[in-house]
Design goal:
With 599 residues, the chain is of the alpha+beta class. The chain contains 14 helices and 30 strands. The chain has an eight-stranded antiparallel sheet with strand order 6-7-8-11-17-15-14-13, covered by helices on one side. A four-stranded antiparallel sheet has the order 1-2-3-4, with no helix packed on it. The two termini are 43 Å apart.
């Protein structure tokens, strides 16, 4: 049966986008989330976090609906939703945001295209377009023309251009669909051609673009469809204009019910962006690295003494003051709805390693249009200086504790990685003095971390210098080349983390109390880190089983949020989460059969 408009929302959502804007579509074909005019803009569609109010959505409701089916067109982010009624009528909604080459540049307008196709019978449908602005506080006016409707907000005007009757849309009247309908929502610009022809042309061009992009990927033999979907999702999480990468498309989806752990993730965390760039690089999608490199260079050039914040706005904004949107009711009524993220004020030393690690490939990859050179290396060296100075100083850590600071082992290792990679880059550039200097620093840091970050009592590396708590981020020590996979210390650390942080087939990031109490849900990226660590220490069969379980835990469309209830499997946290999609890609690459061995 159809899910009613007043049903509780969930994260069974399809993502569409074009690296300028994005939208989330529920299983009934209703757009319930979408920010304009860019990924971190105000939500024009906010129903996902305001389900107590019948606004902020773009619905195409089939009368007497009995079932729905949703899927992506192969190797694209073009989403199809089929709705069937009890009279034998059916319609298909095809949703996408245009993206393709035009006039020598990438065309990615602030635009959504919805095509409604009659599949069978004489379906009766009602179109409800109820955009919002001002995070639920703003009012707007509506004007109309013969083939369009304008929504006039304080800071932007949106125009719906359509070949459907405008009156029926404005009055939300049910209408018999006797022919296909095209709805184009975008800027307040006249459409000077047939709406249907424009929709078809944009559809064909967009589908071709994504087919060509996917064709360029170096995917593993196993789990190709899942990896391709994850890669497309990561691509949609990048902002072409600057090269920034958002952590997720949403704000304030709670990490766990009624927890207050509601955060705005529509910004660029340097840490998350490194993982995204690294995963796409491994698939051969180097264009993301080149654009992100431009973003990073601009951040470093604009900072004071190359000091880094942990996150920035996708336009490079440095101030992301956190506030609450009181006019929005929250996901399932769970407030607060937060705008901005005060973590930008925090000290997180791993950021220096994240930037250097993200950029390192530029010095070794001959495919790049502009490979790294001495000038870029000199821009990175001040980051290494900070890393060497700060590696043994307290910070908020990668989990962004708001109530305390420690010398976090993961942060220290990432600072070491910054200096280690600078030594490797200097060697590549044939700069012997710089190589020797950075190698000495990295060696000294490694010795300190190996001593201070290790607990003899726990027989494992621990969360912080001199501490006893365990932290799932330490599962990355092998991935970062800090220790070898067969190093007894790493094996012991994996086993200790397994014994303390594993819940069923899922992994917590930590289990001790934090600023909001005791964590209750597993953190999806940590489960993937655990899978990768198991594969590295020779427990491949178990790793493969856990990976298959994670694939079965995705949404029907193959997406993941940040968190998961380890008992029920329900997804929580902002969506879709780049961290989680990165984990899927990396684990697939680690566990797949090689192409040459597969057949």
């Amino acid at each position: 049966m159809t899910r009613g408009a007043d049903a509780m929302p969930d994260l069974e959502l399809g993502l569409i986008g074009n690296c300028q804007i994005s939208a989330l579509v529920d299983t009934q074909g209703t757009i319930v989330w979408g920010c304009f005019p860019r990924l971190d803009g105000e939500p024009v569609f906010s129903h996902l976090i305001d389900d107590g109010n019948d606004r902020g959505r773009f619905a195409i409701e089939l009368q007497d609906q009995t079932s729905s089916r949703q899927y992506y067109l192969r190797n694209t982010p073009i989403l199809c939703t089929e709705l069937h009624d009890r009279h034998g009528g059916a319609l298909r909604i095809t949703d996408f945001a245009p993206r393709f080459a035009q006039y020598g540049r990438r065309f990615r307008p602030v635009m959504l295209v919805r095509h409604v196709e009659v599949m069978s019978g004489t379906p009766v449908a009602r179109i409800r377009l109820r955009p919002t602005a001002g995070y639920g506080a703003d009012t707007h006016t509506v004007t109309q023309g013969s083939n369009h409707v304008r929504f006039v907000f304080d800071d932007q005007v949106l125009r719906l251009t359509t070949d459907a009757p405008v009156t029926s849309i404005l009055q939300e009247q049910a209408q018999v669909l006797e022919r296909d309908v095209t709805l184009i929502l975008g800027p307040d610009e006249s459409v000077t051609e047939s709406v249907a022809e424009m929709g078809r042309r944009f559809f064909d061009e967009t589908r071709t673009y994504w087919h060509e992009w996917v064709r360029s990927l170096a995917v593993p033999f196993d789990w190709q469809s899942a990896v391709i979907r994850a890669a497309i999702t990561l691509k949609l999480s990048t902002f072409d204009d600057t090269g920034a990468v958002v952590a997720a498309m949403t704000t304030s989806i709670p990490e766990v019910a009624d927890s207050g752990r509601n955060w705005d993730y529509r910004y660029c965390w340097l840490r998350d962006a490194y993982f995204v760039v690294h995963a796409l690089n491994r698939l051969g999608a180097t264009g993301t690295l080149e654009r992100y490199l431009r973003y990073i260079i601009n951040l470093v050039a604009g900072s004071d003494d190359a000091l880094l914040q942990p996150l920035y706005g996708i336009g490079g904004e440095t101030t992301l003051t956190e506030s609450e949107a009181d006019h929005l009711g929250g996901y399932r009524g769970m407030k607060p709805v937060r705008i901005g993220n005060d973590a930008y004020r925090q000290i997180q030393h791993d950021s220096y390693g994240a930037v250097v690690l993200a950029v390192t490939q530029a010095f070794f990859d001959e495919r790049l249009t502009r490979p790294g050179d001495v000038a870029l290396f000199r821009r990175l060296e001040p980051l290494g200086e900070h890393a060497a100075r700060l590696f043994d100083q307290p910070d908020a850590g990668l989990w962004e504790y708001r109530g305390h600071e420690k010398v976090h082992t993961y942060s220290a290792v990432m600072c070491w990685a910054a200096c280690d990679r600078l030594a490797r880059i200097a060697d590549r550039l044939e700069l012997p003095d710089a190589h020797d200097a950075w190698r000495r620093r990295a060696g000294d840091m490694h010795a300190v971390i190996s001593e201070q970050g290790w607990s003899e009592r726990r027989g494992a590396f621990v969360e912080s210098f001199g501490g006893e708590r365990l932290d799932a981020s330490l599962l990355l020590l092998h991935e970062l080349d800090f220790v070898a996979a067969d190093d007894p210390r790493f094996v012991a650390t994996v086993e200790a983390i397994e014994g303390e942080l594993r819940r069923g087939d899922h992994m917590f990031r930590y289990i001790g109390d934090d600023d909001f109490g005791t964590p209750e849900n597993a953190f999806n990226i940590c489960t993937f880190w655990y899978i990768d660590a198991l594969a590295a220490i020779g427990r491949g069969a178990e790793a493969r089983r856990l990976f298959e379980n994670m694939l079965a835990s995705t949404t029907r469309l193959g997406l993941l949020s940040e968190d998961m209830d380890p008992t029920t499997g329900e997804l929580w946290g902002n969506f879709p989460q780049t961290y989680s999609m990165v984990g899927l890609i990396n684990s697939a690459l680690a566990l797949s059969r090689r192409w040459e061995d597969a057949f």
